[in-house]
Amino acid sequence: MSSLVLAVVLFVAAVLLISLVRRRHLPLTNNLRDLERRMEPLDVEAFRVLVDAEDRQYLREHLPGKVFRHIQRERMRAAVDYVNVAIANAELITRAGEILQDHRSEDERRLGKELLEAALGLRAKAMFVRFKLYLCVLLPNLSFSGAPLVSAYRSLESRRASLNLT
């Protein structure tokens, strides 16, 4: 049991270190269009399918245990890639919110505040989800729901779309 605890602690430390390194390499810009161009497309529906509980249960019932665990680990690794894109996009939207809060228009400042709050919330949820996904890679029989992250990302995207930068 103690080796499992040690593995989890080391894993959490590695995830946090990777997050910090990624954050340091995000160049600052004051150009909203530049931020928009740097956004990576994210197929939210594909992510939702990867973390769908019914799909997981179907695979568990129809595949031998070893095959299920292997496939489930691969699905969770792929889901981590989607979450990493969501985190990167949330960082860009956070910067857009900061820029908008410095604008003169009250509407732009309000939109900036909303974007900033939503992006920071999404980023926090996504980092927690990423941690849970890594646990699912280690322990493929764990159940997991990505619904809160899907909902938060879709909400943030609809707010971001109101910028009309494209």
| Main beta sheet strand tally, sense and closure | none
Q: What's the count of strands?
A: 0
Query: How many domains in all?
Result: 1
> What is the string of helix and strand elements?
HHHHHHH
> Which strand-content bin applies to the residues?
under 5%
Helical element count? 7
| Unreliable residue stretches | none
Specify the helix fraction band.
over 70%
Question: Which structural category fits the helices and strands?
Answer: mainly alpha
What sort of overall outline do the alpha carbons produce when their principal axes are compared?
A: elongated
- Tell me, rounded to a whole number, the average pLDDT: 85
Gyration radius, rounded: 18 Å
Distance between the termini: 53 Å
Structure characterization notes:
- Helices cover 80% and strands 0% of the residues.
- By secondary structure, the protein is mostly helical.
- It has one domain (2-161).
- The N and C termini lie far apart (53 Å).
Which structural traits does this protein have?
mainly alpha, 7 helices, 166 residues
Concise synopsis of the structure shown:
With 166 residues, this protein is an all-alpha fold. It contains seven helices and no strands.
Question: How are the secondary structure elements laid out?
Answer:
Blueprint lengths: L1 H23 L7 H7 L5 H7 L2 H10 L2 H37 L4 H33 L8 H15 L5
